[in-house]
Amino acid sequence: QVQLVESGGGSVQAGGSLRLSCVASGFSSFTFYWAYWVRQAPGKALEWVSAIGSGGTTFYVDSVRGRFTVSRDNTEKLVYLQMNDLNPEDTGIYYCALRRSFTDTPQNYNYRGQGTQVTVSG
C-alpha cells in the first residue's frame, strides 16, 4: 500500500537548520501528486507550510517563505524540506502529504505520513 515515511526531525536551537526527508512507496503515480509539508504545533490545527508540484513549482506560507526550501526527486519518490533560521514558532510535528491538486486551503490529503518531530528552543 502507499506509504510516506518522514525523517530528519530533531531538536535545535533558534537560528539552526534541519533538513526533513520523505520517501514515498507503494505506488507508481508519484508525479500525479503535489507534495506538501504540513505541520501541527502543540494545541494548534494542522497547517500546510510548503507545496511542490511534479514540475518543481513551489508555494510557501508567508511565515516560512525565505527560510524553508522544498524540493523533490520524482525518480526516487523523495521530498525534502530544508529549514533554515528556525525559531520556536516552527516547533511541531511535520508531516509529508500528497494531494492530487494544489490549493492553499487544503482540507484533506490523499496520503499523509506519520510525521517527524521538530523542536526549536531558545
Explained architecture:
The protein has no helices and 11 strands. The chain has 122 residues and is an all-beta fold. Strand 5 and strand 6 (58-60) form a beta hairpin. It is globular and about 40 Å long.
Distance between the termini: 40 Å
Low-pLDDT stretches: none
Count the beta strands: 11
Shape type: globular
Radius of gyration: 13 Å
Q: Largest sheet, if any?
A: 7 strands, mixed
Report the total helices.
0
Q: What would the average pLDDT be, to the nearest integer?
A: 96
Give the helices and strands as they follow along the chain.
EEEEEEEEEEE
The structure class reads mainly beta
Q: How large is the share of residues in beta strands?
A: over 45%
Share of residues in helices: under 10%
List the helices and strands and how they pair.
Layout: E1 3-7, E2 10-13, E3 18-25, E4 34-40, E5 46-52, E6 58-60, E7 68-73, E8 78-83, E9 92-99, E10 111-112, E11 116-121
Parallel strand pairs: 2-11
Antiparallel strand pairs: 1-3, 3-8, 4-5, 4-9, 5-6, 7-8, 9-10, 9-11
Any descriptors?
single chain, 122 residues, mainly beta, 7-stranded mixed beta sheet, 4-stranded antiparallel beta sheet, 11 strands, 0% helix, 51% strand, globular
Question: In a few lines, what is going on in this structure?
Answer:
With 122 residues, this protein is an all-beta fold. Helix content is 0%, strand content 51%.
